[in-house]
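User: Structure with 2-acetamido-2-deoxy-beta-D-glucopyranose, tokens only please.
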Amino acid sequence: MRLLTLLITLLSFLLHTLATPLPPSPAFPPDTERYPIDRHSLLLHFMTDTTGLENLYPNGWPEWAKFDSRLQFTILMQEGRWQCAAEWTPGVLPGEGVFLPCALRQDGGKGTGVEKREGLSAIEGRGIIEDKTEVQFTLRRWYGLGVRRPEISVMLGIRRNVTLDDESHEIWYGERPLYSSQSGPMFCTLGPPLDGMRCSDLDGPLAINSTRVGGG
Ligand SMILES: *[C@@H]1O[C@H](CO)[C@@H](O)[C@H](O)[C@H]1NC(C)=O
Ligand SMILES: *[C@@H]1O[C@H](CO)[C@@H](O)[C@H](O)[C@H]1NC(C)=O
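Assistant:
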């Protein structure tokens, strides 16, 4: 009898649990923007330690074949796609606290479909003066997976300085690490001899979450 009571109690508890609706998934905080990076737009290219032609060049890279490290990507915001690119001396990032400009693509790079699917914008719907809005990016070393070559372990920061219709400014900032591992977000392949390493974004959403950090 007691066992039956216990079973009934257990059953009603289970039924109750099942009937209780799941809590709604947490909404984005209102002061959040999310900027998707265009799929496969990210390219990181840098010199590897070895050339791939050790017999021919036992002392490493010949001068004529050396090249600077390069990162490029396009990132989607309300006003369209921003093209960002930087080159720097191998093994040395552009400099902590240095912000590099991104350029708004003039070739009709707007993609409302992507915005609706992946983007999130606290600014959307408010008027923006596009030619007074600036986007910049910064790179700093990231040690989340230990000490690695700077190129494949960086924190990418995006700063957006929005000028609104009333001429007020809002500064938004967000960052995310870029590294290469089995689960991404970057996938790197060794090129032919003297081509170094090329990394791109794996399939899957690669986005930067951003919050308002200032303005007036
Ligand atoms: C934001 O942009 C405006 C207009 O170009 C400029 O006057 C202001 O100094 C910028 N602010 C920052 C923090 O970059
Ligand atoms: C951005 O925010 C979304 C929603 O909160 C979260 O799922 C995602 O992991 C965040 N991405 C990064 C790179 O922080």
